[in-house]
Amino acid sequence: MLETFKILLPACVLIVGALVCFMGGTMKTSKLVWGPFSLLSLAVAAIALCAMPQILSGSLPGSNVDHVVILDPLARIAQFLTLIIGTLFAGMAFRQQAEDDAAPEFYGLLLTMISGLLIVSAANDLILLFMGLELISIPAYILIYLGKRDTRCQEAAAKYFLLSVLSAAVLLYGLSFLYGMTGSTNLTTIRSVLQQTYGVTNGVTQAASVSKLGIVALVLIFAGLGFKLAAVPFHFYAPDVYQGTNAWNAGLLSIIPKVAGLIALIRIVSHTMVGYEGFGQTVALILALVTMTAGNVLALLQTNVRRMLAYSGVAHAGYMLVGIAVGFWDSWNPSFRLDPFYGLPVGIQASVFYLIAYSIASAGFFAVLVFLARPGKEVEHIEDLTGLWKSQPWLAIAAAIFLFSMAGIPPLPGFWGKLALFGGALSVRGDLSGAIPYPNPSFVALAIVGMVNAAIGGVYYLRIIALMFLHDPLSTPQPRGGRPAMAAVTLCAIVTVVFGLQSRPVLVMLRDIDQPTSVEFATVPATSPLTAAK
Fold first, then answer.
1. What is the pTM of this model?
2. What pLDDT digit, counting tens, does each position of 141-160 carry?
């Protein structure tokens, strides 16, 4: 129990900070206090995360079935990314919340969301993971409502609430099937049970057939987490919600749920559901094809900038699912992997890398929209950015950097992410029984469709860049986002450029993700409930 609390210490720091904010909302305090206080809470959580190896040293058991958390490198990368994104969005909200009576509650809800994502990143138990996902969703309902407080914003909050509750119910139903199959909610135990029953060697399972309950569970989990990723056909809430709320809320929704959805998908499905790799590969491949194609094509038709970014986020979710599909094949055929000396499948490495690249660029572009906003007037249409180069040169350059990265233009990180994803798809082999395995036709088609979609995505990104640089401004912008929003823009632009030029250290770090560490807990049951049942 003590070790569990220590690993969850960064999340506990933020929860305490959120409680202080909520209590402060009941008192007469200055609205200007809560922004710096939220940044202080995030800084303390970051210090606790950096000091985690020292905090845990000398107190670790070899293995313990009671541990519900795990602090492997994947968790640490996701948690550091979470704290960085949380700091950026807390800073972006300074000017907006300086005149809002609900500022304490606003920052309390933000800290609660960030703590939920920290919990999801470290969760090694279905119950804790679901609780973390709900800690992200529930504050989001209120934050969306607080965005503009008009009819459209209330409608957006209602849509997100109803559909999020439905997705949570679907996910919980799928998790219940997984628990019923294995008799445990611990992810390491579930994996061990399935490994003993349906262990895979070069695409051949030890059992004649897998349980149909597992297939149902896999479909339901994909559906529940597909809502977080905004993957087709679970994406239909995103355009209306993004358009109905403000730029700050839309930016938060474009990143935090995606990070949570991808990490949860890797933890539950890719790492845990041994024996279901073939079916999971097919589901992920189909979802990737449909999601990136629908997202890019529909984004071409949009004139509202936030609605366009919503469909763009759908397309990026499709790219991440390419890596999930490749990761299933890597797990199914470990002897044919490109990098057999490391535990994490190459496709999953590419998905996590792409998630980092997308999160930074997306946060930066939404910071541009937040900076340009003023009370009662958001950047609504693409034409509102016309001639930005002549009125705000640095802002236009930074926006172009973010859009070029999301379009996959070298040498920015979006290019390296797409290269890793599509290269991984082309590395998947076809018939492994022959002397010379050939590329898998389905994954070749996936890579080709992905490259075509990248070209389609470049069209609507370049359209915005052309409006900013090649036309005269339609009006004189009067940005009211404040210096913190501009600082967020500048920081994201610098990180995007440096990340693109120095991507190798991140790729090496991701390659080492699944290596056991001194702070990783394992649980291996002596017998398999499924085998015993037989």
1. 0.89
2. 988 887 777 788 888 888 88
How many CB atoms are located within 10 Å of the residue 490 CB? 15
The predicted-structure confidence for 241-293, as pLDDT tens digits, reads as follows 998 888 899 999 999 999 999 999 998 887 788 888 888 889 999 999 999 99
Q: Cis bond leading into 233, ω under 30°?
A: yes
Print burial letters for 199-230: b (CB count within 10 Å at least 16), e (below 16): ebeeeebeeeebbeebbebbbbbbbbbbbbbb
Q: Which two tokens stand for residue 493?
A: 């632009």
**3 state DSSP class of 242:** helix
How many Å apart are CA 270 and CA 222, to the nearest integer? 11
Q: Is the peptide bond before 411 cis (omega within 30 degrees of 0)?
A: yes
Q: Residue 386 has which token pair?
A: 């016309």
Which region holds residue 230: left if phi is over 0, alpha if psi is between -120 and 50, else beta? left
Amino acid symbol at 325: A
Q: DSSP string of 8-70?
A: THHHHHHHHHHHHHHHHTTS---GGGHHHHHHHHHHHHHHHHHTHHHHHTT---S--TT--B-
- Measured distance CA(243)–CA(234) in Å, rounded: 17
Beta carbons of 226 and 176 less than 8 angstroms apart = no
Q: Tokens 């005269």 correspond to what residue?
A: 472
CA-closest candidate to residue 85, choices 418, 401, 491, 513: 491
3-class SS of residue 229: helix
pLDDT tens-place string over residues 471-511 = 888 776 677 778 888 999 999 999 999 999 988 877 777 76
Output DSSP code: residue 525.
-
Q: Give which of 103, 125, 127 is closest to 24, Cα–Cα.
A: 103
Q: Is the pLDDT of residue 515 over 50?
A: no
Three-state SS string over 80-115 comes to HHHHHHHHHHHHHCHHHHCCCCCHHHHHHHHHHHHH
Neighbours of 152 (CB within 10 A): 13
Q: What is the pLDDT of residues 415-431, one digit of tens each?
A: 999 999 998 888 887 76
Res 64: pLDDT: 39
> How confident is residue 52, by pLDDT bands cut at 50, 70 and 90?
confident
